[in-house]
Amino acid sequence: MITIKNDEISIGNFRVRELSEKFGTPLYVYSEEKIKNNFIKTLKTARKYYKNFNLFYAIKACNNPHIARILINEGAGIDAASINEIKLAKLLELKGNKIMFSGNFLSDEDLKEGYESGAIINLDDISLLPRLLKYGTPNIISFRVNPGYGESNVGEWVTNAGPKAKFGLKPNHVLDAYRNAQNAGIKRFGVHMMPGSCLLDPDYFHKITNMLIKIIIPIFKELNIDIEFINLGGGLGIPYEKKDTPLDLDKTMKGISEIIISKCTQNKLKLPALYMEPARYFVGDAGILLGKVHTIKRSYSTIIGTDISMNTFARPAMYDAYHHIYIDGKESHPRQKFGICGQVCENTDYWCRNRKLPKTVGEGDLIVVSDTGAYGYGMSYEYNGRLKAAEVLITKDEAKLIRRRETFNDMLKNVELSNEMIKNLTK
Ligand code: LLP
User: Fold this and answer.
1) What per-residue confidence (pLDDT) applies to 122?
2) Is the pTM value of this prediction over 0.85?
3) Beta bridge partners of 196
4) Taking a C-beta distance cutoff of 8 angstroms, is the pair 357, 367 a contact?
5) Is 352 considered catalytic here?
6) Domains of the chain and any CATH numbers
7) Which of 62, 187, 335, 378 is deepest in the core (most CB within 10 A)?
8) Distance from residue 198's CA to the centre of ligand 1 (Å)
């Protein structure tokens, strides 16, 4: 998504140097065009093989409504993990079956508000059904199945199925869950799974589809259920490292579709709608994080100190995740190995070690961290008095501020200040 000309880095028509001067750093920058193209490519490819296919955007990955708006304009629904994410979807005028509520370990308030919102509720455990029914009988419901296996290219922490995961129903709870729902008078059903994130191998998607189908078909036959939708969750991966082979989307969608069509036909089941709810695949490679080098420390090793800390961008510290890094104006220079850190008082904020970067890197240089559009700003937090970054959207002719930088006042906004503190504040 970036272009480099004479070592100068740009996004669309904007040089990162200009963006940093106008908006400051650290700064999340997204490309509207890239987000749109990622979505259109996914929808087109899937519909080649499965006509009744629709996409939801898992808004947790990047929850700025301006970003979700781009996807909704192209036809996306929203996958919401919480009531506040349902509210974000409503802010964007979505309703009913365009919102999928896939929370986990939901409280009674969550279930009540989820029910009242009219979203499709996707239950994460059999025990949630009677608690949900206290508030009414939904027209349609789905259960999240943990097929017993999941994977992730970004470590076991992002593997969402199998015995170690907290998500979904064990296969031997699935029959009872749907039977209980039928007995409660629910008439329309879907099924859901989300076994892992950032997968680059089409065979993985074919394997999990087969596993799900094997679990659900005998159950739906026994209960005489015409399943309305199968939602395969997200998980479409992006190549973070140059050595990664990008996902073959065509092969992935072709295989998934063939499995569902052939198994449903063999078992004389009506073909359900097919849904997926990716996030990383739409926004991950459509965002960068722009920061500034403040300090070069030549100590036990040479460490580049930047204003990108673990609170600004958590993935490297949390998962040891790899993100490619560029230094503006110096990409063609000879390289040596450096460590990179932020400004927070934790050694996990020494978030990148032994990275080959231009030898000439120095104070004031701009650092560009790539592929930060997903799980970047959304996972950022305030710590050490280091506040949340700003967000900018690049359109054809504009670099538009879509979230301002946090301020000291934002940091205090929920504090019950005493009169004395207020006095001191205004001194
Ligand atoms: N659907 C559900 C129910 C989910 O929980 C998720 C992500 C998605 C869809 C979208 O998954 P994707 O297409 O992005 O793989 N923080 C981690 C990723 C956690 C994934 C959480 N669930 C990371 O930075 O890699």
Assistant:
1) 98
2) yes
3) 159
4) no
5) no
6) 2-30+284-412 (2.40.37.10), 32-282 (3.20.20.10)
7) 62
8) 8
Q: Is 93 helix (H, G, I), strand (E, B) or coil?
A: coil
Q: In the prediction, which pLDDT does 361 show?
A: 98
Centroid of chain to Cα 349: 22
Q: Mean pLDDT, the chain, as a whole number?
A: 96
Rounded to whole angstroms, how far apart are CA atoms 193 and 200? 18
Cis before 246? omega within 30: no
Instruction: Provide the angle, in degrees to the nearest 10, between the axes of the packed helices 65-73 and 32-49.
Output: 40
Structure tokens at 2: 């970036």
User: Which is catalytic among the residues 62, 198, 345, 352?
Assistant: 345
**Closest to 254 (Cα-Cα) out of 53, 49, 40:** 49
Residue for token digits 């695949």?
281
Which residue is associated with the tokens 């399943």?
227
CB-ligand 1 contact for 278 (6 Å cutoff): yes
Eight-class DSSP state of 228: -
pLDDT digits (tens, 9 = 90+) for 187-228: 999 999 999 999 999 999 999 999 999 999 999 999 999 999
Q: How far apart are CA 158 and CA 197, in angstroms?
A: 6
pLDDT of residue 1: 85
